[in-house]
Amino acid sequence: MKNTCHSSCPRSSSLRRLQMKASTILVYLLSLVVWLVSTLAQAQLAVPTPIISMRFEPLVTKTSGDTCRLLVQTDPHVVSLKLSNDFILYDGHWPTTPQSNPLELFDDGTHGDIVAHDHVFTIDKLSFNFANGTPRFPALIDMNDSIAEATVTYDDNSMATVKLNYPLRVFQIRSEAYVKPNVTTLDPQAQESDYCLNLVFPVSPPVDSDITTRYYGFFPDDRDFLIIADEFPVSTNAVSGTSGGVSNRDTGFGKATRDDASSYGSAGRLQQITRVFGAFSAGLLNHELLHRWAAFLSEVGLSDASGHWRAILRPSSGFGSYWGAFKEFTLLGGNTYRATFNPDLFIYSDLEQYLMGLVGPDDVAWPVQYLINDQPLSTGYDPVPGIRYRDVQADGIGSVGLDDIVAAYGKRVPAAADAQKQFNVGMVVIYDRLLTEVELAWFDMFAREYGEPSTSWTGFVGFGAATAGRAELNTLLRPVAPSGTHRVRRHLTHR
Asked: 387 near 321, Cβ under 8 Å?
């Protein structure tokens, strides 16, 4: 008979114990490997970038030969710094020349550096040549470019080339279009022009309530929106702007009623605070102001959790072309669709104007078609028809009518005939110092033009124009002097 070893056999028990020990050791070793990989990955992620922040000083220049400095705050261990450059002129030299590319910055009290060895590297005599290109609008130039990489030397003599893609905003005023602002000193850390309040916060970017409290110390509670231009240097431009609701009494567009105005120093008039970071364009403001009313239609499938449209069909959108409103859907096959982008004009659609209370339901082209459960795949450009597109995976095309929106959210109250159509906006620019005359002039000229019902600036679509004239926006400030003080009218000189 063949001898079979059962579990009670001593040799079998010993073998099993050895197998269990080996298994335990293997599990431990695998756990150790996973821990080491995770620790190394976290350590790599924790390595600080050598660049903490960048900014031009001054923030704004005129096109008639003004120059500026570039200030770069670095890690304390950096002892030398060079930046790749493809758009900044140094001492008149194009970035295609060795004098200008790469840009060498200094932390030794030379080349415009104010304080030696403070880990802020500087280079002066910088200028730009955007005036002869294609500026966003003829009076003000607002260009977004980036520094691709930095080459640094550390205090241990090691060197590294780091990919940055660091965004830098360039603001210029065409000298022939320059309008000298009327400037009033309110206190040592506040000044105003006709259209802007400039507040100084020396330490760090403040929270919204700190800004609004100071605003209401100088101005009456007559603003529906406060727009804050945050010009503090940042290490990234993950977002260009944010908007937070303050109060809302209207219904029928998916937004709950609320009144938190007292938290910001308003007695109830303030509806929304918008904050933009190192960027300031009419399209961006149209986008952010639209968040007062849209997009909050997720229950009927038209908006996402971020407050933007999903893939819907509309001829335009105040959010701009990249935030869900498409011109056309084309089935490529299976469940893949090609969504064609609209021109990037930031003009409010009929659906958006209905939600804003500017038009009635009969003025909207119903139904609103959308891609069901859309998942973006890729974007591209077809040069033959000259269109930009996004390929999307979806479960088909759905339709939403007025009845669907009313069933989910109720009728729009107040209706278009009674809804608010005139809005006051207060523009606030915050920085770690008072703005120069030229800097303040840029924001003053912009705010003035943004409040006009129409403009001669090419490519500039303000709020009134984006609503086809159905709404008006007043950006002119009505200053009130603080109690016990008098206002000093002065004209700044360019520094």
From this structure: no
